[in-house]
Amino acid sequence: MPNTFLKYLIIVPTSLLLALNTQSQSVYDTLLLSELEVIGNLDDLNSTTKVTTIDSIKRNELNLQDIGELLAAFTPVFVKSYGRGTLSTVSFRGTGASHTKVLWEGFNINSPMLGQTDFSLLPNSFFNEVELNYGGGSLIEISGALGGSVSLKSKIDQTNSIFSIHQSIGSFNTYLTSAVLNLKKERISSSTHFVRQSSVNDFQYYNNALLPVGKEMIQTDADFVVNGFTQQLAYKISGKQQIKFITWNQWNNRTIPKIMTNVEKGGNHREWQKDFSSRNILQWELNTSKTQWEAKAAYFYEELDYYLQTSDSLIDSKNLVESYSFIGNVSTELVNTFILKAGIELLRENVISNNYIEKKQRHKISSYVSLKKTFKKKFTAEALVRAEVSDSEFIPLMPMIGINYKPFARHDLHIRANVSRNYNLPSLNDLYWYPNGNEDLKPEQSLQTEAGLDYSLKLNNKNLLTVSGSAYISSVNNWIIWEPGDYIDWHPENIPKVLSRGAELSCQIKGKYRNILYSFFGEYAVTRTTRNSDSAKISGLSNIQLIYVPMHTANGFLNISTRGYYVNWSLSFTSSRNTSLNKDKNSPFILPSYMLNNISVGKKFMLKKAGFDIRFKIYNVFNVDYQAVLWRAMPGRNFEISLNCKI
After folding, report:
1. For residue 538, what is the enclosing H or E element?
2. Which of 40, 43, 327, 394 has the greatest CB tally within 10 Å of its CB?
3. Angle CA(224)–CA(579)–CA(554) in degrees, nearest 5?
């Protein structure tokens, strides 16, 4: 990336921010109001698909962690982590990591090379909205999310000028500093977020890969440093119209440790990865009484350098990705309360890699139309269709039809069901990675159906109970998987058919007892994903769960607070996972299940005009020895203390 472009991205937002700062009036008086609690259900019970929004209490509990750790703690999705500071991917409902699409302000941030997102590179503190759309519910935003999508958004706090700084110190020489500055001057608003995290990451673990007996060891060569900032500028043209500019720039530098089987083999092993990304969006919005218009353009730039040196091999992979996008959306209320939504997206991706024979490009045009209608406040019907053209080839239409029925007028019970079809294109690595790419791969096609219910009961004026359940089945044709070959390394192939089915159940109760506020959340999911083709049945693979798909996952969260004091307890359970489809392989066939518990205690208080929040947290309370990925060490019990100051 040219130096002038990088300087422009940094100097221009900073100059505008300083100009705002010099023109803004300082706030010298702080007005303290008594706490107001609103008991309500944040998720839309009238939706025809399953949607999960992670509330602010849960996000603040892991504000210093990445989005992957947040999802692992509070959702039924499976997070496949190679250890803190290293690769972390997310899978919905037994699908693969490339079947999870991640959007930032409506734009896809999945790598066009890998087809997936590394969640360890998404600082939780950068986002104040995290929403999950399951199955066909993702089609209104993007195609290819055969499992689901994660939508990340950042909003400017336009109520007043706020400065906050957060500092934490943790085990293994882990430090994190984050700061937020929100400013407002008449029609102009600004929000700046900064984060820096570093860790030596030298925890002690038990290496059970060493024979004949295991050994206690200290992890080495696992340090990482993350630096990043986001800058938002919004100008309110009128009460109905505004324009906004957002830039997100991040530098990541991490050393990758040896796997547990190789730590004592020598070989002059060196492995590291360096990333730089710059994501920039210019957006225009117009909101009238019945119609909302939106147009936004984006330019994303990414550099990724991966280096591996051993006594036998040397890999020096250098990759550069540029993408240009435009999105236009409209939402309007027609006659008889019909809600019409429509949109179009234009996308061009350019990739230069020394792992490809030549520069690769992908062009895509995508559009959708959605119509939704509620009849007599009891029955809601929704129909959506998405059409795409990729590199001049038409993708078959992707429809979704859903219903929501409220059978009782006095009870907030909703029954929903939907069916959808979706397509996911192979990633550029799947097609062109030299020498193992496969240009004959077919797009993955899924047919999904889901049914569920949502029930909300106001126990009294201070307590609310919410219960949700879903069952689903998804059939995927031409599933893409990388498998080892006879004469070359791993290569991608299409599996004729994969069948995923399962159920999810969640319960939440929150409210107030005397002067104690409480919130409890629990969720359980069961997933069965297997090959379903005739050849799989003949070979005996049709009854074996796909690798790294846990059959059972569960998580829970309890928050109790009073008079500024609070305590949070979270737990997450992951059942055993297959690491191979061949029991005759010379490696463990199953990774054992594990349950992690985290607890934190803290105090919020005011000192003159500043608000403080001091917290002490224990991760992995019971010092569980576990592996999320085979032969990748994970930390035992560790600690963190943090202080947040807001002015």
Report:
1. helix 534-539
2. 327
3. 75
Contacts of 58 (CB under 8 A, 6+ apart): 70, 73, 74, 521, 557
Q: Where are the beta strands (DSSP E) in 532-593?
A: 552-562, 565-574, 577-578, 590-591
The residue to which tokens 């990591």 are assigned: 97
Neighbours of 384 (CB within 10 A): 23
**Residue 505: left (phi > 0), alpha (psi -120 to 50), or beta?**
beta
According to DSSP, residue 356 is labeled S
Q: What is the mean pLDDT of residues 568-584?
A: 85
**Average pLDDT of the segment spanning 298-317:** 93
Kindly tell me if the per-residue pLDDT of 588 is higher than 80.
no
Task: Answer whether 273's CB lies under 8 Å from 256's CB.
Answer: yes
Q: What is the pLDDT of residue 55?
A: 80
pLDDT-derived band at 485 (thresholds 50, 70, 90) equals low
Report d(CA 179, CA 229) in Å as an integer: 9
User: CA-CA distance, 278 to 637, in Å (whole number)?
Assistant: 35
Q: What is the DSSP string of 10-60?
A: HHHHHHHHHHHHHHSPP----------------S-TT-SS-EEE--HHHHH
The runs of H, that is alpha helices, within 109-236 are: none
pTM, 2 dp: 0.89
Taking 90 as the threshold, does the pLDDT of residue 158 lie above it?
no
Q: Shortest CA distance to 300 belongs to which of 276, 324, 327?
A: 324
Region of poorest pLDDT, from 42-51, 405-414, 518-527, 581-590:
581-590
Quick check: 84 and 490 in contact, CB under 8 A? Answer: no
